[in-house]
UniProtKB/TrEMBL annotation:
Protein name in UniProt: Bacterial bifunctional deaminase-reductase C-terminal domain-containing protein
Superkingdom of this protein's organism: Bacteria
Domain annotation Bacterial bifunctional deaminase-reductase C-terminal: ranges: 4-176
InterPro entries from the UniProt entry: DHFR-like_dom_sf (IPR024072), RibDG_C (IPR002734)
SUPFAM superfamilies according to UniProt: Dihydrofolate reductase-like
Length: 193
């Protein structure tokens, strides 16, 4: 049985995107791809919100020949059929593109049932980005691990990544620095209420 693992890349001032939801200003460095490749490599499935799903679907299918080996590994894992559950009341099977055969669209009201199903898989279920979904998972006590990859930069975004999140106790599991990168990975276990 696996954990529900939230992974958020945030700026040092706590934002997951810059003003106007601009991701290009985020202080991502090589740690971003190294961390994501490690998570994807051992994931049993992904659980995503609709916005993050659309962004990933528009990006990853075109990265199988990327210069960065971490990006190639991530793209290949998706191409090999890593299961994806996307929480959405607006997406349908026709919106899942080349990931149609590996994607399950889950209505928002069925998140708890889907998380219970995903917990039964052999391996962790990773939630990338998807801040609306992350807030819901934390509010409902459905997350087990939180990774915060803190980038070295202030972006002064429009909304903090974890705004409106329920108070949640966390226990520090690890702090990691990456060679040649200024980002820091903070890994926490969620303390059950």
């Amino acid at each position: 049985m696996g954990d529900i693992v939230i992974s958020l890349a945030i700026s040092a001032d706590g934002y997951a995107s810059g003003p106007g939801d601009d991701l290009s200003v985020m202080p991502f460095d090589r740690a971003f791809n190294l961390h994501n490749a490690a998570l994807v490599g051992r994931a049993a499935a992904l659980l995503l919100g609709a916005i993050t799903f659309r962004q990933m679907l528009g990006y990853w299918p075109h990265q199988r020949d990327a210069a960065d080996p971490s990006e190639r590994a991530i793209a290949q894992r998706y191409a090999d059929g890593l299961p994806v559950s996307v929480v959405s009341d607006s997406l349908g099977p026709d919106d899942t593109g080349v990931w149609r055969d590996q994607t399950t669209v889950v209505p928002r009201d069925d998140v708890r049932t889907e998380v219970e199903r995903l917990r039964g898989l052999d391996g962790d279920v990773v939630v990338f980005g998807s801040t609306t979904l992350v807030r819901h998972l934390l509010r409902e006590g459905l997350a087990d691990v939180v990774h915060l990859l803190v980038g070295a930069g202030l972006v002064a975004g429009d909304r903090p990544a974890l705004a409106d999140t329920a108070a949640t106790a966390l226990r520090l599991q690890d702090v990691r620095r990456f060679d040649g990168a200024d980002s820091v990975l903070l890994s926490y276990a969620v303390v059950p209420a």
